[in-house]
Design brief:
The chain has 341 residues and is an alpha/beta fold. The chain has 2 domains: 190 residues, Isopropylmalate Dehydrogenase (3-Layer(aba) Sandwich); 116 residues, Isopropylmalate Dehydrogenase (3-Layer(aba) Sandwich), CATH 3.40.718. Helices cover 39% and strands 16% of the residues. It has 13 helices and 12 strands. Helix 1 crosses helix 2 and helix 8 crosses helix 9. It starts with 7 loop residues before the first strand and ends with a helix.
């Protein structure tokens, strides 16, 4: 982690959710963020200073809050407490989302993205937000991933969502669409495009020189020769053939009920899945406390814990910090990999 030249920016997320308390918990448990003997990546939070202070007190942890005026102060301040860029704030109301809280979440996200795009940070980690609350404040994007793609001046399909944990990485090729609409969104071009981005990122950000990709089938038994659907023959198999012609190590289409068996998981570095739940259910089942949402294909590094705001347990000291810790650790590893490239 010490190879990362700048600290990581952490956006606050919805201040009524579990984001503030697990961010504070990550500073308290910062030694656990270290990997392979390296120092943990220093990080700072963008806005919400009093919210974070109150969240730490409610959780009963000793997390000094250190206000900073500029990013350059963060690394030194990190030794004394959790650095927070002074700015927007709201009263701490755990479990009670508000328009003011949504405005703070949006401002924190936008500010963190700006700082990262300007090269002042090594990358950004985004805490969970409530999408409906953001939309009510004029946020026009389906989620944070789409916002970051636009901020980087990329098309939405150029930002690829990957869910990652210690034993599994999955990529949903279609994301927030109805299951009935998945077949019409799938195309040979979509699979090829996202597979290329995934393979390139596995090399650049994860140090995998020759990434292995497994592509899931859409239908039961991967269609069984057209008996249960023809998407495999019309779309998926031609895409795999095209990727192989480019020299990529790609297998499939693999039936969904076989793709995540222990022995099968040993044969690939990432699984490309046809729809949201095909990718997220196995990841959450296997990596419940360490799942990370990584956005591939961006010129910047962005990770996020693979869970939501959890308003029902916010402020009660019940939220596990594992996924946020994993997101910070992974962002630091990716930053170090890029710095050393």
């Amino acid at each position: 982690m010490s190879a990362a030249p700048f600290p990581l920016a952490v956006s606050l997320g919805d201040p009524a959710g579990i984001g503030p308390e697990i961010i504070a918990e990550c500073w308290v448990r910062r030694a656990e963020l270290a990997c392979k003997g390296n120092d943990p990546p220093p990080f700072f939070v963008v806005g919400g200073m009093e919210t974070l202070r109150s969240a730490a007190e409610a959780r009963g942890i000793d997390c000094p809050i250190v206000p900073i005026a500029q990013v350059q102060e963060a690394t030194m301040a990190f030794r004394a407490g959790l650095p927070v860029l002074a700015g927007f704030d709201v009263p701490f109301t755990p479990g009670q989302p508000s328009p003011e809280g949504a405005k703070l979440a949006m401002a924190s996200l936008q500010w963190a993205a700006k700082l990262t795009l300007e090269g002042e940070t090594a990358g950004m980690v985004t805490a969970p937000v409530e999408k409906a609350g953001l939309a009510a404040q004029g946020f026009i994007f389906p989620g944070q991933t789409e916002f970051l793609a636009a901020a980087c001046r990329l098309m939405t399909d150029d930002a690829v969502m990957m869910l990652a944990g210690p034993s599994l990485r999955t990529v949903p090729l279609t994301v927030h669409v109805a299951l009935a609409d998945v077949p019409r969104y799938l195309s040979r071009e979509l699979i090829v495009h996202k597979a290329r981005i995934t393979a390139a990122s596995l090399t650049r950000d994860f140090g995998i020189e020759h990434p292995r990709l497994a592509v899931a089938g859409l239908n039961p038994h991967a269609g069984e020769g057209g008996k249960f659907g023809d998407e495999e023959m019309r779309i998926i198999e031609p895409a795999i053939a095209a990727l192989k012609d480019e020299g990529l190590d790609v297998t499939g289409p693999v039936p969904g009920d076989a793709l995540f068996m222990p022995r099968m998981r040993e044969t690939y570095d990432a699984a490309l899945c046809m729809y949201h739940d095909q990718a997220l259910i196995p990841l959450k089942a296997l990596e419940v406390d360490e799942g990370v949402n990584v956005t591939l294909g961006l010129p910047i590094i962005r990770t996020s814990p693979d869970h939501g705001t959890a308003f029902d347990i916010a402020g009660k000291g019940l939220a596990a910090p594992g996924a946020m810790m994993a997101a910070i650790r992974m962002a630091g590893q990716m930053a170090a990999a890029r710095a050393g490239a």
